[in-house]
Write a structure and sequence with these properties.
Elements: E1 5-8, H1 12-23, E2 28-32, H2 35-43, E3 48-50, H3 56-61, E4 70-73, H4 78-91, E5 96-100, H5 106-113, E6 117-119, H6 137-147, E7 153-158, H7 170-176, E8 182-187, E9 195-197, E10 211-216, H8 218-229
Parallel strand pairs: 1-2, 1-4, 2-3, 4-5, 5-6
Antiparallel strand pairs: 7-10, 8-9, 8-10
Protein backbone atom coordinates (compact mmCIF):
# COMPACT_ATOMS: atom_id res chain seq x y z
CA UNK A 1 0.00 0.00 0.00
CA UNK A 2 1.41 3.38 -1.01
CA UNK A 3 2.01 5.74 1.91
CA UNK A 4 -0.56 8.49 2.39
CA UNK A 5 1.55 10.60 4.73
CA UNK A 6 5.14 11.80 4.58
CA UNK A 7 6.97 12.67 7.80
CA UNK A 8 10.00 14.80 7.12
CA UNK A 9 12.47 14.41 9.95
CA UNK A 10 13.75 11.41 11.89
CA UNK A 11 14.22 13.19 15.22
CA UNK A 12 12.51 12.17 18.50
CA UNK A 13 9.40 14.27 17.80
CA UNK A 14 8.99 12.72 14.36
CA UNK A 15 9.54 9.23 15.77
CA UNK A 16 6.80 9.82 18.34
CA UNK A 17 4.41 10.91 15.57
CA UNK A 18 5.43 7.87 13.54
CA UNK A 19 4.58 5.50 16.39
CA UNK A 20 1.08 7.02 16.61
CA UNK A 21 0.57 6.53 12.88
CA UNK A 22 1.87 2.97 13.13
CA UNK A 23 -0.63 2.10 15.84
CA UNK A 24 -3.53 3.36 13.72
CA UNK A 25 -2.23 1.48 10.67
CA UNK A 26 -2.11 4.58 8.48
CA UNK A 27 0.49 4.12 5.74
CA UNK A 28 3.34 6.62 5.94
CA UNK A 29 7.00 7.07 5.24
CA UNK A 30 9.69 8.92 7.20
CA UNK A 31 12.20 11.01 5.28
CA UNK A 32 15.38 12.85 6.22
CA UNK A 33 18.60 13.81 4.49
CA UNK A 34 20.69 12.90 7.54
CA UNK A 35 21.80 9.31 7.02
CA UNK A 36 22.47 8.73 10.73
CA UNK A 37 18.98 9.86 11.69
CA UNK A 38 17.41 7.68 9.02
CA UNK A 39 19.31 4.68 10.35
CA UNK A 40 18.22 5.50 13.92
CA UNK A 41 14.58 5.51 12.82
CA UNK A 42 15.06 2.18 11.06
CA UNK A 43 16.52 0.70 14.24
CA UNK A 44 13.27 1.72 15.94
CA UNK A 45 11.47 -0.49 13.41
CA UNK A 46 10.19 2.39 11.27
CA UNK A 47 10.28 2.69 7.50
CA UNK A 48 12.60 5.57 6.70
CA UNK A 49 14.47 6.76 3.64
CA UNK A 50 17.12 9.34 2.93
CA UNK A 51 16.00 12.22 0.72
CA UNK A 52 17.26 15.62 -0.36
CA UNK A 53 14.14 17.65 0.37
CA UNK A 54 15.57 20.61 -1.58
CA UNK A 55 15.23 18.59 -4.81
CA UNK A 56 11.73 18.79 -6.32
CA UNK A 57 12.29 15.61 -8.32
CA UNK A 58 13.13 13.77 -5.10
CA UNK A 59 9.91 15.07 -3.52
CA UNK A 60 7.91 13.86 -6.52
CA UNK A 61 9.60 10.48 -6.32
CA UNK A 62 8.13 9.85 -2.85
CA UNK A 63 4.63 10.90 -3.90
CA UNK A 64 4.42 14.65 -3.31
CA UNK A 65 2.02 15.84 -5.99
CA UNK A 66 0.52 12.37 -6.50
CA UNK A 67 -0.54 9.89 -3.80
CA UNK A 68 0.73 11.68 -0.67
CA UNK A 69 -2.22 13.34 1.09
CA UNK A 70 -0.48 14.97 4.01
CA UNK A 71 2.99 16.17 4.94
CA UNK A 72 4.42 16.74 8.40
CA UNK A 73 7.32 19.19 8.41
CA UNK A 74 9.21 18.03 11.50
CA UNK A 75 12.78 18.84 10.52
CA UNK A 76 15.15 20.16 13.17
CA UNK A 77 15.41 23.77 11.93
CA UNK A 78 12.61 26.23 11.24
CA UNK A 79 14.34 27.35 8.05
CA UNK A 80 14.28 23.76 6.77
CA UNK A 81 10.56 23.42 7.48
CA UNK A 82 9.84 26.76 5.76
CA UNK A 83 11.71 25.65 2.64
CA UNK A 84 9.98 22.27 2.66
CA UNK A 85 6.52 23.83 3.07
CA UNK A 86 7.13 26.14 0.11
CA UNK A 87 8.35 23.29 -2.09
CA UNK A 88 5.57 20.87 -1.12
CA UNK A 89 2.84 23.49 -1.60
CA UNK A 90 4.18 24.39 -5.03
CA UNK A 91 4.09 20.74 -6.11
CA UNK A 92 0.68 19.95 -4.57
CA UNK A 93 -1.66 22.92 -4.00
CA UNK A 94 -4.27 20.74 -2.22
CA UNK A 95 -1.78 19.01 0.07
CA UNK A 96 -2.42 19.06 3.83
CA UNK A 97 0.72 20.49 5.47
CA UNK A 98 1.37 20.54 9.21
CA UNK A 99 4.60 22.01 10.54
CA UNK A 100 6.31 22.19 13.92
CA UNK A 101 8.19 25.36 14.80
CA UNK A 102 11.07 25.85 17.20
CA UNK A 103 10.89 29.63 17.60
CA UNK A 104 7.56 31.48 18.03
CA UNK A 105 8.46 34.01 15.34
CA UNK A 106 8.77 31.19 12.81
CA UNK A 107 5.04 30.40 12.93
CA UNK A 108 4.07 33.30 10.66
CA UNK A 109 6.77 32.34 8.16
CA UNK A 110 5.55 28.74 8.06
CA UNK A 111 1.96 29.81 7.47
CA UNK A 112 3.10 32.18 4.72
CA UNK A 113 5.12 29.32 3.23
CA UNK A 114 1.97 27.23 2.84
CA UNK A 115 1.49 25.30 6.08
CA UNK A 116 -2.15 24.68 7.00
CA UNK A 117 -1.33 24.35 10.69
CA UNK A 118 1.69 25.28 12.77
CA UNK A 119 2.34 23.73 16.17
CA UNK A 120 4.82 24.79 18.83
CA UNK A 121 5.71 21.52 20.63
CA UNK A 122 7.22 23.42 23.53
CA UNK A 123 4.30 25.68 24.36
CA UNK A 124 2.93 25.26 27.89
CA UNK A 125 -0.43 23.49 28.00
CA UNK A 126 -1.42 23.84 31.65
CA UNK A 127 -2.05 20.19 32.40
CA UNK A 128 -2.22 18.11 35.60
CA UNK A 129 1.51 17.50 35.90
CA UNK A 130 4.10 18.40 38.47
CA UNK A 131 6.08 20.83 36.35
CA UNK A 132 5.81 22.33 32.90
CA UNK A 133 4.38 19.96 30.34
CA UNK A 134 4.54 20.26 26.61
CA UNK A 135 1.40 21.08 24.76
CA UNK A 136 0.15 17.71 23.44
CA UNK A 137 1.83 18.30 20.11
CA UNK A 138 1.12 14.96 18.57
CA UNK A 139 -2.58 15.27 19.34
CA UNK A 140 -2.56 18.68 17.68
CA UNK A 141 -0.81 17.22 14.66
CA UNK A 142 -3.07 14.21 14.42
CA UNK A 143 -6.43 15.47 15.66
CA UNK A 144 -8.00 15.47 12.20
CA UNK A 145 -6.12 12.56 10.64
CA UNK A 146 -5.69 9.97 13.37
CA UNK A 147 -7.92 10.41 16.35
CA UNK A 148 -11.00 12.19 15.00
CA UNK A 149 -12.52 12.31 18.46
CA UNK A 150 -13.13 14.86 21.21
CA UNK A 151 -12.71 12.59 24.24
CA UNK A 152 -9.08 13.41 25.00
CA UNK A 153 -7.77 13.47 28.55
CA UNK A 154 -4.38 14.00 30.15
CA UNK A 155 -3.77 11.44 32.88
CA UNK A 156 -1.04 10.55 35.34
CA UNK A 157 -0.64 6.78 35.66
CA UNK A 158 1.53 5.57 38.54
CA UNK A 159 3.48 2.35 38.04
CA UNK A 160 2.19 0.11 40.85
CA UNK A 161 4.17 -2.36 42.93
CA UNK A 162 4.42 -5.70 41.14
CA UNK A 163 4.17 -4.16 37.68
CA UNK A 164 6.19 -5.77 34.90
CA UNK A 165 7.51 -2.28 34.07
CA UNK A 166 9.88 -2.20 37.04
CA UNK A 167 13.41 -2.10 35.57
CA UNK A 168 12.11 -1.80 31.99
CA UNK A 169 13.22 0.97 29.63
CA UNK A 170 10.78 3.42 28.09
CA UNK A 171 11.47 2.06 24.60
CA UNK A 172 10.34 -1.40 25.72
CA UNK A 173 7.08 0.03 27.06
CA UNK A 174 6.47 1.77 23.74
CA UNK A 175 6.84 -1.52 21.87
CA UNK A 176 4.05 -3.03 23.97
CA UNK A 177 1.67 -0.09 23.70
CA UNK A 178 -1.37 -1.04 21.63
CA UNK A 179 -3.74 1.53 23.10
CA UNK A 180 -4.58 4.73 21.24
CA UNK A 181 -2.77 6.97 23.73
CA UNK A 182 0.22 9.26 23.50
CA UNK A 183 3.02 8.91 26.02
CA UNK A 184 4.06 12.48 26.85
CA UNK A 185 6.72 11.54 29.38
CA UNK A 186 7.58 10.17 32.80
CA UNK A 187 8.08 11.70 36.23
CA UNK A 188 10.87 9.88 38.11
CA UNK A 189 9.93 10.36 41.76
CA UNK A 190 13.46 9.49 42.90
CA UNK A 191 14.97 12.31 40.86
CA UNK A 192 12.39 14.95 41.67
CA UNK A 193 9.17 16.10 40.10
CA UNK A 194 10.36 17.15 36.66
CA UNK A 195 8.68 15.61 33.65
CA UNK A 196 11.10 13.78 31.35
CA UNK A 197 9.52 14.37 27.94
CA UNK A 198 9.34 11.37 25.63
CA UNK A 199 10.33 13.63 22.71
CA UNK A 200 13.74 14.27 24.27
CA UNK A 201 14.95 10.83 23.25
CA UNK A 202 15.91 9.72 26.78
CA UNK A 203 15.37 5.97 27.15
CA UNK A 204 14.43 6.21 30.82
CA UNK A 205 14.66 3.18 33.10
CA UNK A 206 11.28 2.79 34.80
CA UNK A 207 10.69 1.93 38.46
CA UNK A 208 7.80 1.43 40.84
CA UNK A 209 6.02 4.71 41.66
CA UNK A 210 7.25 6.48 38.53
CA UNK A 211 4.42 8.45 36.96
CA UNK A 212 3.62 8.03 33.27
CA UNK A 213 1.88 11.04 31.71
CA UNK A 214 -0.37 10.06 28.82
CA UNK A 215 -3.10 11.62 26.74
CA UNK A 216 -5.98 9.86 25.00
CA UNK A 217 -9.64 8.86 25.17
CA UNK A 218 -10.88 7.76 28.60
CA UNK A 219 -11.38 4.14 27.58
CA UNK A 220 -7.91 3.91 26.06
CA UNK A 221 -6.29 5.49 29.13
CA UNK A 222 -8.06 2.90 31.30
CA UNK A 223 -6.80 0.11 29.05
CA UNK A 224 -3.26 1.51 29.30
CA UNK A 225 -3.56 1.59 33.10
CA UNK A 226 -4.67 -2.05 33.14
CA UNK A 227 -1.82 -3.03 30.83
CA UNK A 228 0.92 -1.61 33.06
CA UNK A 229 -0.67 -3.01 36.24
CA UNK A 230 -0.01 -6.58 35.14
CA UNK A 231 2.87 -8.62 36.50
CA UNK A 232 3.94 -9.82 33.06
CA UNK A 233 4.27 -7.97 29.72
CA UNK A 234 1.26 -8.21 27.41
CA UNK A 235 1.51 -10.91 24.77
Amino acid sequence: MAPKFALFGCNPLAIEVAWRLSMTRLPFIMLDRDTAKVEAARQEGLEAERIDYTDDDALRSVGIGSHIEGVFCLLGEDSENVFLAISARALAPALRIVAACRAPEAAAKLLAAGADKVVDPYEISGARVHELIERPEVVELMEHTVFGMQDLNIAEVTIPGGSWLHGVHLSELRRHMKQNVILLGVVDMERGKDLIFSTRGIDHNLDYDDVLVVIGPSREVEAFHAMIAGSTPPA
